[in-house]
Amino acid sequence: MPNLEQVKEIYQTIKNSKNPRSLIDYYAAADPEFKEVMDFMGQNGGSLKDAFYAMAKRKGVDPDEIISPLKSNRW
Predict the structure, then answer these.
(1) Residue range 35-68, pLDDT digits in tens
(2) At 59, phi and psi to the nearest 5?
(3) What pLDDT is attached to residue 60?
(4) In this structure, are residues 11 and 3 in contact, taking their beta carbons and an 8 Å threshold?
(5) ∠ CA 71-74-75 to the nearest 5 degrees?
(6) Rama region for 52: left / alpha / beta (φ>0; ψ in -120 to 50; rest)
(7) Sign of the CA dihedral 11, 4, 46, 31?
(8) How far apart are CA 24 and CA 22, in angstroms?
(9) At a CB cut-off of 8 Å and minimum separation 6, what does 8 contact?
(10) What is the domain partition of the chain in residue ranges?
(11) pLDDT at 1 (0 to 100)
């Protein structure tokens, strides 16, 4: 499971890319876990937020337990 620093790095790389879609496709092809996330997001209407809440519910996790610490550590 990637740590927060790895997620931030991937996020910044995609955000700063001239062709984010191509980069996302590359990550999906290179990393089965990333592809699984993208597939799950697609199953939830393409919304990362909706996918996050659905996964939290499925795993029995309170999403605010994850979101709250991130809010205090602005990216």
Answers:
(1) 888 888 888 888 888 888 888 888 898 988 888 8
(2) -90, 0
(3) 92
(4) no
(5) 130
(6) alpha
(7) positive
(8) 5
(9) 75
(10) 4-72
(11) 47
Rounded to whole angstroms, the Cα distance separating 25 from 31 reads: 10
Burial 30-41 (b: 16+ CB within 10 A, else e): eeeebeebbeeb
Q: Copy the structure tokens of residue 54.
A: 């659905």
Q: What is the DSSP letter of 18?
A: S
Higher pLDDT, 8 or 23: 23
**Nearest Cα residue to 52 out of 5, 6, 7:** 7
CB atoms within 10 A of CB 51: 19
